[in-house]
Records
---
Amino acid sequence: MTNATRLVAFTLASEPGNERLALARVAESVAGLGLPAARLERLKTAVAEATMNAIEHGNGNRAEIPVEVEVTQNGDQITVAITDQGGIEAPANNQGNEEPDLLKKLEGAQAPRGWGLFLIRNMVDAMDVTTDGQRHTILLTMRTEGGST
Amino acid sequence: MTSTCEATTRTVPGAAVIELAGEVDGSAATVLTAAYEQAIKASDGTAQTVVLDFAAVDYINSTGIALIVSVLARARAERRKVVASGLSPHYREIFDITRLSDFIELFPDLDRAVSQLAN
């Protein structure tokens, strides 16, 4: 990533609930960058959901395996990279096969859960997933300007 | 994980009200289920509408959305309507994106939800 400035980098233990720590630290790191309030709320939700996925599906709720979070800025673009050590299958791939359908869920044809990736995709300007086999990274991109809201 | 969700229930004519506070995530399942059952029981089973008030809720995640889906599915099976009040603009947007707002009428606050139900 050329000309990108690292705003913060930290790790979290893979324990349920730690996504709240991630969203708080990410929000703190982008304060003052001009991200409108509504877009900040969207980014916070996306960060929380991606971190939950990394904790639960990537690292299997094993506290000793860290989730890595890095926030960078490149011009008007903020990117949050969230990395787990999930092994062979990327969590973003093995959950995303079926689009959540509320009516199906209400009728019992789909499980009530399964909203995480759907929310992430709808919250940020771009979502990308990279993997090197062991490590999986989800990249969440949000522009400070030029977004729809 | 300890739940930080709290629920207070009461009845108004024709409706059971569940006022939620704290975080609505997967750990809130027991609290929300118990509150639903208590609220319906307090109405002697006559409540046609369940009001979920989110005014004191500061966090809802995808597992919380799943809980709300479960409550809605149960209420529909029992032929009850679900309405919601007090959602922040961000969570109203999430209710729109997930289409929950197609099935749950949204009110700005609890007073307006209750007064609308009384009419």
---
Amino acid sequence: MIPFVLVGIGGALGALGRYGLARWAMARGTPNWPWGTFAANVIGSFVLGVALVLANGEPLLFIGVGFCGGLTTFSSFAADMLMLIQVGRRPAATYYAVGSIVAGVLCVIGGMAFGGLFA
Amino acid sequence: MNNSAHPARDGSETALLVGLVALGGFVGAAARFAVMEFVAATELPFWLATFGVNLAGCTVMGVLLARVSRLGRGSVQMQQRWRAFLGFGILGAFTTFSTFSADIIELALTSSVGAGAYMLATAITCLAGVILGERLARGGIA
């Protein structure tokens, strides 16, 4: 029971962070690149990399599974790609997809390296 | 920024949206954890949990995109509430990009081909899922 509550609370906090980033990006209005989702995904991937090195057990459930999982999203990422395709911006959709995945992987590696400095 | 004649009402509406995102985020993340625990208790490969939640979440997101105006019954305010609860909250937290990225690295430790296949398969099926969900919900599949 307690693990589910930890993951849920972390997920709620992560979702709030992502919603804040999305509102910030919408207010700026950048139709070519979904900055809100992109920022949430790269920040969450970096934090997960740090957590994988420095945390385990319940703290890792809270931060890694809960917060990082809640902050990052694949459903909005896919919806962003669909939106870019529907408005006829296929090159932007491709750059966004490749850029997000490359940045996500590099951010986990960077986060692990950064966490390793304190391990 | 605030051009509304009802700033107080806008404030309470924002608070409601924030609450809906948090509630949905709790439910979505806990449901994802349940799937992870289920897959971990079986002989299934570890990456199947993330693959499954992302594909399922993206497909339902397609349905939501097609149906949100009907769900909101023409009201922009109601649409925003559904988007906050289901889109940003439940589906956003149910799916994950961070674990997807970490899974690629873990797979790459044993097989770079496997890591590449997982990456491509997730990206392609999730995009197909959101497109399929949207078309099915619109009734556009002939």
